[in-house]
Structure formats: structure tokens, C-alpha cells
Design a protein that fits this description.
Layout lengths: L8 H16 L3 H8 L3 E10 L5 E12 L5 E8 L4 H17 L5 E8 L7 H14 L9 E5 L5 H15 L23 H16 L8 E5 L3 H14 L2 E7 L2 E9 L1 H11 L9 E3 L1 H5 L5 E4 L18 E3 L8 H9 L3 E3 L1 H4 L2 H15 L5 H26 L3 H20 L4
Parallel strand pairs: 3-4, 3-5, 6-7, 6-10, 10-11, 11-12
Antiparallel strand pairs: 1-2, 2-4, 7-8, 8-9
Helix pairs in contact: 1-3, 1-14, 2-14, 3-14, 4-5, 6-7, 6-12, 6-13, 12-13, 13-14
Amino acid sequence: MQSDQTMNPFQMALANFEIAADTLGLDNNIRERIRLPERELIVNFPVKLRDGRIKVFTGYRVQHNTARGPAKGGLRYHPNVNLDEVRALASWMTWKNAVVGIPFGGGKGGVTCNPKEMTTEELQNLTRRFAQEISIMIGPERDIPAPDVYTNAQTMAWIMDTYSMARGYCVPGVVTGKPLSIGGSAGRNEATARGCVYTIAEAAKVKKMPLKNARIVVQGFGNAGSIAAKLLFDDHQSRIIAISDSRGAIFNSKGMNPHSVLLYKSQHGSVKGYPEAEEISPEELLTLECEVLIPAALENVITTENAGRLNAKIIAEAANGPTVPEADAILDERGIMVLPDILANAGGVTVSYFEWVQDNYSFFWKEHDINERLREVMVSAFKAVLETAKKYDVHMRRAAYVLAVDRVAEAIRVRGIYP
């Protein structure tokens, strides 16, 4: 196995799959059908920029597995988007959807670009042209994109409109994460963080650890991290002792009000310099003594180099792929319960599923009902993963993958091969 530094995201995803397949004793014929994505589309397409120049961008859409239902997964705009990253993210979506038991397969997409350097008009032009390029793959019964890194509800609205115009009628179910005015779902913005907090609450019960006054460390103060902090602070009276973003990290042993920190960040562009906290290094933040550590930013932040120095009782992965496979054994040996990404951050895709159902029926639920249904799904998934961990005597990540791979494998077995 490659080192933490050289393993690319898809190799990391495959490593976790192979471990789960070995644990299950999965038939080689089934294993070969699951390992690699079913479809991969690479498109190079022109976009007219504000100065009149034409620039060619590269975009991707990958469908990893559709044995259990249409492909489902986000669409990201980032300078580092590449095929291996999209492959990995698509496979994680397969397992994420399977572990929470919703009838979707895994898909993901992206465009290699820097949205911070583009105007709104340029982003709209790029989005509409990319939507047209991948329209041969997407659709409410085939593949349903959603927001991801540097895409949002407006991006989804442009995709929905482009797809609908080509069909001649409104197709709201082609994407999720849309504005409420065109078929979006209440509760979608908070869903990833809320689902994560539901799993933290269940894990705390298992650990016999009250969340009231529990010390919380949040690595990454974007949408998921900031909302998780607010929910833990508001609903559980937890103590948010450390927060970081891409520019720095802050610490206050007595706790911070995340609403106040978020307001400061909106005014200054970063949590760095927040007056009611001291500055610490991002590396130091990860090793602080706490009850719950929430990695909510980048991949590969918990490695074999720092796993032995982490001092959390629970690690809840709000981000995708924050822990390299080799680090899991170290964390498990130290008694740290890891709530893996394919479980902990599955709240977003779960409410995306709710949105898709509501669009199909043209009947919309109240936010309270959505949050309660989300709670039921996340609690049920947590208990299923915990039971699997006990059955196979493995840690929670391996249990989550075992559960997900088994469900996908069963769908493949039942469906057989066509023709």
C-alpha cells in the first residue's frame, strides 16, 4: 500500500472497498463488477469569458454503480478537479447511499476551474454549457447532480433550467439542492450537519458521554462545520473550544459562541483574529483534548503521522475522506470511535433523496417532518453499522463499508447480468 502522501483519492477509496470485500469474503465476480465505475464521461467545452475570449474547460461526470437506483452525487468547481478525484467521490456516494438505505447509486461530477476568478455571468455560461454536455448521462431516473464544492442552489437552478429547456417541459427532479421556489426542499441546507449531529448524539450514548458541556473541535468552518457547531451549541449546550478555516485556527478552553464566530468570519473573511480566542496552529487543533473532533474540510488530514496524537473520544467525519486507511487501525487501538464519512455526512444526500421524492410527487413536506425523517434514517443507519461492527468485530469504518458493499453486492446478485 502506498504512503499517506502518495495515495490518490481513488486508490484510498479502493483500499477501503477491498478491506470490506475481504471481510465479507465477497465473490470475485461480484467484486470485479463493483470495483470500477460503470461510466466515465470527460468533456472539453468552450465558454465565452467577459473579455470576449473563448476558454476551453474540462469537466467530468462519473457513475460508479447504479445497481440500487439512479446515480446520485454532487458537482464541484475547483482548480484541482481531476478524474481520479471524481471517481473516488462517485464510489463514496455509492457506499453512502447504501449505508443509509436510500435507493440511489453513486455518481459525482466536476469542472476544473477557479470559480473565485469568474464572474456570475461566466459561471452561468460554464454551468449551462457543462449541463448540456453531460445531458446524455443525467436525468431524474438516471443521474441526479447536487451542489458540492463551490457550487450552490443557483448552480442547480441553471442546470435544471438548461435540462428543462432541451426537453420542452419543467423537470425539477433532474437536480437536488435547488432553491425552494423551483422545487427545492426545506431543511436541505442544514442536512449534512444535522445528520452528522444525529450520529454524534447516538455515538455519545454508546460512549455514555453527555454532550452537555462536551468539548467540541471543528476543523473547517464552512457550511457543514459551522452548522454542526451551531446545532451542538444550541441543542446540546456543548462547548465549542476550537475552530479552524483555511486561513487559521482559534482556541478558547472555556468555549466560543459559534454564531458570534460566524459573524466575525463574514466580516473579516476568516476566523483568524477572533478577539475572544487565542491563535493556534491547524496541526495543534487536531491534537487538542476534546470529546468530539469534527473534520469538516479537506481529505487526508488524519494520517499515520498524527493519528497517535489525537485526543478525541469521537471523530465525526463531516468531510469526505479526512482519514487515510492506515490511520484507522491506530485510532481503533486507542479506543477512539470514528463515525466514517459515508455515515456521518450522509444527511445531505438523504434530504436530497427527500427532495427528489417531493419533486416526483409535486407534494412538499414541512421542515419539521423532514428533520424527523432524517433523524430516523441516521439513527437507523448508525445502529445498523454498530451491529455490523459487533458482528464482524471491526471498527466503525470497516463496518460501514461492509454493510454498504453487502447491500450493493446483493442488488447485483439479484439483478444478474444482461443479456
